[in-house]
Amino acid sequence: MDMEQVIMGIIMNSGDAKSDAMEAIQHAKKKEVDRANQLIESAENELKEAHSKQTEMIQDEARGEKTELSLLLVHAQDHLMTATTFKDLAKEFVDLYEQI
Where, if anywhere, are coiled coils annotated (predicted)? Predict the structure, then answer.
């Protein structure tokens, strides 16, 4: 697969995960906890897909296939890390809204 496509996939999956996490918080605020938890699960699935693409790149590099460092790759990594953190915090928010 073309490296640029892999990188764009990481960005898209991460963006979708972050959007799902944000939407989960909004549903939790409305006491729609079941829907919020579905969205957290969706975010986790999106992040798994992004992480799988990242792992593939890491394995390629471990086999000696060097990945050219580009601004787009750095951007993808930033999206993945941010989305992961955001999903984790959203899960905590959903749990808190469920308790109150």
Answer: 26-60
Nearest C-alpha neighbor of 25 from the set 100, 81, 96: 96
Could you tell me the pTM of the whole model?
A: 0.92
For the domain made up of 3-58+68-99, the CATH class stated in words is: mainly alpha
Query: What's the pLDDT tens digit per position in 39-55?
Result: 999 999 999 999 999 99
Active site residues: 75
The domains of the chain are located at: 3-58+68-99
Question: How far is it, in rounded angstroms, from Cα 51 to Cα 57?
Answer: 10
- pLDDT tens digit string along 4-23? 999 999 999 999 999 999 99
